[in-house]
Amino acid sequence: MDYYTVTADITFCSFVPVTVYSNANSDKAKIINDNKEKAAIYMWTHIESGKFYIGSAVDLSKRMKNYFNESYL
Predict the structure, then answer these.
(1) Radius of gyration of the CA atoms of the chain, in A
(2) Closest CA to 40 of 19, 23, 67, 22
(3) What 3-state DSSP class applies to 48?
(4) What pLDDT does residue 39 have?
(5) Which pLDDT score is estimated for 8?
(6) Do residues 30 and 19 touch, judged by C-beta distance below 8 A?
(7) What's residue 61's pLDDT?
(8) How far apart are CA 72 and CA 50, in angstroms?
(9) Positive or negative: CA dihedral 42, 3, 7, 71
(10) Are 66 and 33 in contact (CB under 8 A)?
(11) Which of 2, 8, 9, 23 is the most exposed place for a label (fewest CB within 10 A)?
C-alpha cells in the first residue's frame, strides 16, 4: 500500500467559511443538526498550536457524529 503526504501553504489562499463554531465540544448538537445531509469541506483548528486538519464528507453530520464518539476515536 502506498502512503502519500501532502503539504500546502494556505497563506496564499482566500477561504471564506460559511459557518464557524467556536467550541466544538459545547456546540456538538448544533453542529450535527446544522449539517444533516450536507456535503462539505471542513477544517479543525487547534487553538493553542495553530495546527489544523482539513477534511471532506458527503454527509457532514455523520462525520461529526463519528468525531464526537469516543469509541470511534
Answers:
(1) 14
(2) 19
(3) coil
(4) 93
(5) 55
(6) no
(7) 94
(8) 24
(9) positive
(10) no
(11) 2
Plot region of 35 (φ>0 → left; ψ -120 to 50 → alpha; else → beta): alpha
pLDDT for residue 10: 58
The CA distances from residue 2 to 5, 15, in Å, are 10, 30
What is the mean pLDDT of the segment spanning 19-45?
A: 92
What's the average model confidence in pLDDT over 4-15?
59
Condensed to tens digits (0 to 9), the pLDDT of residues 36-50 reads 999 999 999 888 898
Q: Assess whether pLDDT exceeds 70 at residue 27.
A: yes
- Percent helix, strand and coil across the chain, each to the nearest 5: 25, 15, 60
CA–CA separation, 54 vs 43, rounded Å?
4
CA dihedral 43, 65, 37, 19 (to 10 degrees): -40
The span from the CA of 27 to the CA of 9, in Å, is 29
